Amino acid sequence: MGTLTLALIERIREVGILRCLGAGARQIRRVFSTEAVVIGDGGVGPGLTSRISPLPGACSVRRR
Q1: Cα separation, 62 vs 59, whole angstroms
Q2: What is the mean pLDDT of the segment spanning 9-34?
Q3: C-alpha distances in angstroms, 64 versus 1, 57, 61?
């Protein structure tokens, strides 16, 4: 399962409360879409940084 699927399953009560308070499906979808963007950006930044400037020796083969 993906991270966002688990986030939705764990927050079913929260979704129910939002629905009871009058939030529509579009508003709830926007909440989860915003969360997806934040999670994605949180992974892209370190991923690009590590790809652009790898640690010295991270890709070298160790020889004896």
Answers
A1: 9
A2: 91
A3: 42, 15, 10
